[in-house]
Model the fold of this input.
Amino acid sequence: MALTHQDIQAIQNVTKNLCSDETVIKGDNIPVETLNSNGKIVESNEYEVIDKINGTTQAIAVAPVIDGKTDYSQTAIVVAGTQLIGKEGFGEEAWNSTKNVIEARSGLTPQVDDISDFYDSTAAKLEKDHGGGSISNMSGFSQSGPAVAKVAAQHQVPKITNFMDWGASSSLYSKDNPKGITAEEKTWLDKHATIYMDSTRDVTYLDGKSHGD
Done:
């Protein structure tokens, strides 16, 4: 079963809660509900937790469970958005996350290193614990979006679904932003990434231009 954008959005909606919930651990099977605009459950899918982190960066890797069997070829890495100071406490993670979102206004967020490490960790766990698998989907929200795009393009992940990218245009490569998304990586993203913006419901390219342009 190929994961849809709606499936990824449903996982994205619960990523922060799943990451902060210490009772959710690797190997658990978890239900993820899809809600309609009225908040009613229209679908519930089951996923196995492959890996997760809960620090300045909050991310989870899951694979769908179909008829009682996990499909590791459809593993998805989903990264939550910024932990804002005040709204989500005043701990070190919130301070660092808020600092990163400010830095992302002029370059690729420092979160890219965490996300790259998490990709490597997930790939290693798939190989070690499950005899292989494939990271077929990646998703970011807000600040994490451009960093997810960078890592996904580096590894040529087939499907990238981001929501409300923050600092997308600032994340592109330049002399002042040497860790940014290169022209080659952007070519991959233009073919494989879908970015949803809540303000207009438009689907945009990484640089903010409409797919219709």
About this structure: The beta strands are 29-35, 41-54, 58-66, 69-70, 75-79, 135-140, 159-163, 193-196, 203-204.
